[in-house]
Amino acid sequence: MNVITSASRVTLHFELSLEDGQIVDSNFSQAPATFVFGDGSLLPDFEAALLGMSAGQEASFVMHPEKAFGAHNESNIQRMPRSQFSMDLEEGMVVSFADMSKNELPGVIAEIGEQEVIVDFNHPLAGRSLTFRAQIVDVEEVA
């Protein structure tokens, strides 16, 4: 029986939930997902938690913010002039910005004032501990 190594293709069901049990993402009611270890599909610490598991196994792991989507960083909250936005804005809306290298950078509209808009560029799950539940369906070694 193959166990998960850094040279594995893994097929699994997974679930991410918050501390209060709210499910953020899950594919348990859908077809399982497949990824190749190290391909960037999963965060490195999520992959590392699966090492040594084999088909048929299920486990849950509590992932603290530094092992998941990082700590909430106040410097990722920006104040921008309201005049910079040519669209109707709503709090909670995700807006796409370009960074210095012209890469897409999503920001969440946190607050809308008369003169300025506060945009949060932290990942929506930053600062949150998550429970990562995985059920391994298949493990294959990749050449």
TrEMBL record:
GO terms for molecular function: isomerase activity. Keywords: Isomerase, Rotamase. It comes from the Bacteria. Its EC number is 5.2.1.8. It holds the Pfam family FKBP_C. Residues 7-81 form the PPIase FKBP-type domain. It is an enzyme of class 5 (isomerase). InterPro entries: PPIase_dom_sf, PPIase_FKBP_dom, SlpA/SlyD-like_ins_sf. Gene3D superfamilies: 2.40.10.330, 3.10.50.40. It catalyses: [protein]-peptidylproline (omega=180) = [protein]-peptidylproline (omega=0). Belongs to the FKBP-type PPIase family. This is Peptidyl-prolyl cis-trans isomerase.
